[in-house]
Amino acid sequence: MSSQNSPSANKLIDRIKIALQYAMPKHAISRLVGKLAAAKMGWLTTKLIEIFIKTYDINMAEAKLKKASDFATFNDFFTRELEEGARTIDQDSSTLCYPVDGAISQQGDIVEGKLIQAKGFNYSLTALLGGDARTAAPFQQGKFSCIYLSPQDYHRIHMPMVATLREMIYVPGELFSVNPLTANNVPDLFARNERVVTIFDTEYGSMAMVLVGATIVASIETTWAGTITPPAGKDIFRWQYPAKGIDAITFNKGDEMGRFKLGSTVVCTFSPKMIEFTPDAGPETVTRLGEHYASLLNEKNS
């Protein structure tokens, strides 16, 4: 007799998993996990890291620090730095590089203000970017790409191209898991979860990078402002940044711009006629930081 569940049993299990996500106190659990992940618990922290490395087959050979005992907290391990040379940034100025290690969930055209989440599910560009139509306007009829970071991935986020930060928006929301099962079953997932929206100017058009929170994501950070969440709130907050001058925040291609303490998803959006994604990439394509992501199409803005 086969030990595998029948298709009907698997569907029932999936429905139970989704129902539990709706019912569970996701924020309370996530903040508790966050406190534990930030705690220095000595041998217990080391043991937990060792179990995690084994469970998810983490490649520690590419990490700057190699041993579980090198990390004071689980967060230190989870946001571990890669050793020099572990990733190569594509330096071609006519291309974008992948901003993270992960896998593409969906990518393609933004059609009538909607992005594809999964088969049968679309969600609103305006809602994703915080609810202001003016923020979403530069990306209407443009392109989007959604990349999921699994527990085994490197969890620092880097810039796909040269860009200047113009706005950051904290958007409160739920903390559903963002794994493929949830993406296929929870409507408006990425537009309802807590997230940090970052808007950039480039010489070729506008780019947004949306850092989406999830269950047990203990923290979302950026390199210029530190921890954005927690604490969580019920209000949307916006920060504006100068386009030019000594106070402008400009990144080179491949620069680190943020990190997740426990994994999640990055959604990128681009202006119309700005880029063309690598033609052989699509849902489930594995991404590696620094590799060819897309080609620039239009001329530089004047």
Please name the defining characteristics of this protein.
alpha+beta; 8 helices; four-stranded antiparallel beta sheet; 302 residues
Into which percentage range does the β-strand content fall?
25-35%
Write down the Rg: 19 Å
Q: Would you tell me the structural class of the helices and strands?
A: alpha+beta
Low-confidence stretches: none
Indicate the mean pLDDT.
89
Straight-line N-to-C gap: 69 Å
Compressed to H and E, one letter per element, the order equals HHHHEEEEHHEEEHHEEEEEEEEEEE
Helix proportion: 10-25%
Gist?
The chain is an alpha+beta fold and 302 residues long. The protein contains eight helices and 18 strands.
Characterization of the model:
This protein has 302 residues and is α+β, with helices and mostly antiparallel strands. The chain folds into 2 domains: 7-78, no CATH class; 95-296. Helix content is 22%, strand content 30%. It is built from 8 helices and 18 strands. It has helices at 7-23, 26-38, 43-56, 74-78, 125-128, 133-136, 180-183, 189-192, and strands at residues 95-97, 102-109, 114-118, 121-124, 143-148, 156-158, 163-171, 195-202, 205-212, 219-222, 226-229, 237-240, 250-251, 256-261, 265-270, 275-277, 286-287, 292-296. The strands form 4 sheets. Strands 2, 5, 7, 8, 9, 12, 13, 15 and 17 form a 9-stranded antiparallel β-sheet that branches. It has a 4-stranded antiparallel β-sheet with strand order 6-14-10-11, with no helix packed on it. The chain has a 3-stranded antiparallel β-sheet with strand order 1-18-16, with no helix packed on it. The longest helix has 17 residues, at 7-23. The chain is globular and about 55 Å long. The mean pLDDT is 89.
